[in-house]
Design brief:
mainly alpha; 12 helices
Length: 188
Amino acid sequence: MAVYFSGCTKLQPVDTSALINTGMNDQAVQQLDSLKISTAEVGEIAEARQSGLSDDDCVAIYKIYKSRHQAFDAGDAVAGLMQVGMSGSDVIELAQLSQLGLDWGELQAMKLAGLSNAIVMEEAQQRSDGKSVLSGAMLARLKNTGVHESTLLKLVQRAIPDSEGRQILAARRRGVSENEILHHFTGS
């Protein structure tokens, strides 16, 4: 008597050659493979690796997504942030804060506007905490009026909402000092 099993197919191993082609070492490829990386995720990790993310950081960021039971789909976000000068450790921290989603482009724009990594990272932290903060565009406008980085950072740390940005901008244009702005806008 013959027994037939329908629907049983042998799973094909995921082709990780794209990772090897980026220069990723065998140990990192094996780690990703042992974490059951999917074909689509191989392409995303390869994009992150090609942007300059180290092998260890590629594995770390993949583990962050895996721990949340999410597919890693942030290769373009990682590449975009690395291209504007964010470090691998900053990108890993952004992943831990769940800030590599739809709004990563604003973080990239903030860097392109000349805002420091400290401001970008604080902005991401505040957003991760669910706080409303000055937008990247408003921070860039304030910077263009001569507001110093340290003052911008304090405004973000205080979680000043974007709705108050125009008031700060108007005050600055009237010649109000940064100390007076910080005294008046204390945040939440």
